[in-house]
Design goal:
heterodimer, A: 360 residues, alpha/beta, four-stranded mixed β-sheet, 71% helix, B: 254 residues, Rossmann fold, six-stranded mixed β-sheet, four-stranded antiparallel β-sheet, 10 helices, 25% strand, globular, binds adenosine-5'-triphosphate, binds magnesium ion
């Protein structure tokens, strides 16, 4: 097989199904007005050889008039069809950029996204205002459905995970405290840890994965289905209609879930202490009640509320800004969970600082 | 002479830097069935999305009832929300609500009818589109053609003055698509609704169209206006002719 250049012509011959390369640089051919592709005795060819030829010829077809002579019928048909419309030089939208520029852009994007997020929060506040004044379109049924989903249906998983966390805290804690013979303080450790922060954090992470992602996916799919467009042309606010019931449901259920999580965590600790470390139950309970403080408990619940808001906002925001294909729904879901968790950590930091300042 | 309901002046449409059509000027008369036609990818859907305010225009103006749709006029917003129905390509019914809830939503939002009255209206609209008795079905439980008709019922819920259709016959078999065409004609005749249809289905375009524009992607603007049948008789240029004859005239010439 071979490809030869003969004056104006490109002559193909031999077995084209074998790997072949084109012996001449394209640049030198680009200047020609026209070019003829000829059959110099092709013995065998298949689709693959047409693909190779096409990828080469298509670079010429914009500037050069290509003709085919004597090629096998189907082969010239295929080539003609593919080359009919000259390839446009479509430029990628992504300009190449240096390291500094890339980080700079990242910074701008970050600042922009924070702005958008805050803007969305402000919209949500507007929606609450509307709800209080009774002006918004608020589907009670949506609220009850969401509440059922993020309330009763989440209790099992939250309980299970919190129980395990309590178990682990007690086990690991006691291993350390044993060296001082202070095993019984494990009860205080579990109580303070769960009530102040761990309960809220575990619940937050579970709900981000469970409910935040589902919000983003549901609303994102509505975008793909043009349902969000339909809402807009009906003049119904998406934040009122979709965001509000979901956010309210999550805000209502989070404190209760945190409460359950606290309790289950302490129960898990109790399990380890009583059965593994053989601390009497009454002793465990005594140390628990001793180290329990209302302030810690309220801080934990407050964390839960804030996390609920973060999760709902992220879920709804990424759902509503979702693109119009299946892939972007997946991306929206991932973003919702990742950003929920990141923002929960940021909020934890902020709340901790404030509590430090207030001396709680 | 009836005043036009929609006036488009020197409109450019596109996405960001990517201008798809420019210098669009046309008027849509009250009570007409107006067709937006053109080859695949020429920007018909983009134009429709711009007309209903989902996409900002790059430049130029769109006047509906004499008021710019981009102006922040509260009355115009209310008009757009209540007097413009849109039938989306996929129907765009809310999948978490059944047909009754879908159609009653705009009624609950914009009217002060009693629940009993709303129930009656919804039943009537569903009957109009041939879906009587399907109130309690969810969109996923009915066929594509039925979904489109249900979408039409929702678009008609508030008795709008203008209804926009995005490719009504896409994905329908010839009989259902003929059915939908007949329905469009009847609604136009009986209710006097102005209807704007994006389509490239030749049979339906000749069947229902009273006025039309042809978007030409090679010159990035519209290259013909008028009744589709007249355009077929006196085509202003070859591309229109070849579109309206499914390219048959091209082959005859060559
Ligand atoms: N979201 C988008 N962002 C950027 N460009 C887009 C977007 N949607 C469509 N386009 C581009 O706009 C052009 C017109 O698309 P449009 O959907 O309006 O075509 P159409 O006339 O409706 O075609 P069809 O008859 O196939 O539906 C296409 O070239 C497409 O690449
Ligand atoms: Mg389209």
């Amino acid at each position: 097989m071979s490809v030869d250049i003969d004056g104006q012509d490109i002559v193909l011959s031999g077995d084209l199904t074998k790997k072949f390369s084109i012996p001449i640089a394209i640049e030198s051919l680009r200047k020609r007005k026209y070019l003829i592709v000829k059959n110099g005795g092709i013995s065998n060819w298949n689709q693959e050889s047409v693909v190779t030829l096409y990828s080469w010829l298509s670079q010429l077809s914009a500037s050069t008039n290509l003709q085919m002579k004597g090629l096998p019928d189907e082969m010239s048909c295929l080539l003609r069809l593919a080359l009919e419309k000259p390839q446009k030089n479509i430029q990628s939208n992504l300009p190449k950029e240096g390291l500094l520029e890339r980080w700079g852009t990242k910074g701008i994007v970050l600042a922009h996204s924070i702005k958008l997020g805050v803007g969305f929060f402000v919209k949500m506040i507007g929606a609450w205002e509307q709800q209080i004044t009774g002006k918004s379109v608020y589907r009670k049924k949506d609220f009850w459905l969401s509440l059922e989903d993020c309330g009763p249906k989440a209790v099992m998983i939250v309980s299970l995970i919190s129980f395990m966390v309590g178990l682990i805290l007690a086990f690991v804690g006691a291993l350390q405290l044993k060296t001082f013979g202070a095993q019984v303080y494990v009860a205080s450790l579990v109580t303070i840890g769960m009530v102040r922060i761990m309960g809220a954090v575990m619940t937050g992470i579970i709900m981000a994965g469970r409910t935040g992602s589902s919000y983003a996916a549901t609303i994102g799919t509505m975008q793909v289905n043009e349902e969000l467009d339909a809402l807009r042309t009906m003049g119904i606010s998406r934040v009122d209609f979709l965001g509000l019931p979901r956010t309210n449901a999550l805000l209502l259920s989070m404190p209760i879930l945190v409460l359950i999580s606290d309790f289950m965590g302490i129960l898990g600790g109790c399990f380890v202490c009583v059965f593994l470390w053989e601390i009497p139950l009454s002793e465990y309970v005594r140390y628990c009640t001793m180290s329990f403080s209302l302030a810690n408990f309220l801080v934990g619940i407050f964390h839960g509320l804030v996390f609920g808001l973060v999760i709902a906002l992220c879920g709804c925001y990424f759902g509503m800004t979702c693109g119009r294909n299946a892939e972007s729904v997946g991306k929206a879901t991932t973003n919702a969970v990742v950003y929920s968790i990141v923002w929960m950590i940021v909020m934890t930091g902020i709340i901790t600082l404030i509590c430090e300042g207030l001396g709680i | 002479m009836i005043s036009p309901i929609i006036k488009v002046q020197n409109l450019s449409i596109g996405y960001g830097d990517n201008v798809i059509m420019n210098k669009l000027c046309f008027e849509i008369k009250r009570g007409d069935i107006f067709i937006i036609m053109g080859g695949s990818g020429c920007g018909k859907s983009t134009l429709l999305r711009t007309l209903i305010g989902l996409l900002p225009a790059l430049s130029g103006r769109i006047l509906i009832n004499g008021i710019d749709i981009m102006s922040n006029n509260a009355k115009q917003k209310e008009f757009l929300a209540t007097q413009c129905g849109v039938l989306y390509q996929s129907g765009a019914l809310f999948s978490s609500m059944n047909l009754f809830e879908n159609i009653s939503l705009p009624l609950e939002q914009y009217t002060s009818y009693s629940p009993e009255k709303i129930r009656e209206i919804v039943k009537f609209k569903l009957a109009l589109v041939g879906l009587a008795g399907f109130e309690h079905f969810y969109p996923s439980e009915i066929s594509g053609g039925m979904r489109k008709r249900a979408g039409l019922a929702r678009a008609l819920a508030l008795d709008p003055e203008i209804v926009f259709f995005d490719e009504p016959s896409a994905g329908l078999d010839p009989v259902s698509s003929k059915h939908l065409d007949d329905l469009i004609l009847e609604i136009n005749k009986i209710l006097g609704t102005t209807i704007i249809v994006v389509t490239h289905e030749l049979s339906s375009l000749f069947n229902i169209g009273k006025d039309s524009i042809f978007l030409d992607s090679s010159i990035k603007t519209l290259s013909a206006k008028g009744n589709p049948k007249d355009l077929l008789k006196n085509p202003p240029n070859n591309r229109v002719l070849s579109f309206l004859t499914r390219g048959v005239s091209d082959e005859e010439r060559s």
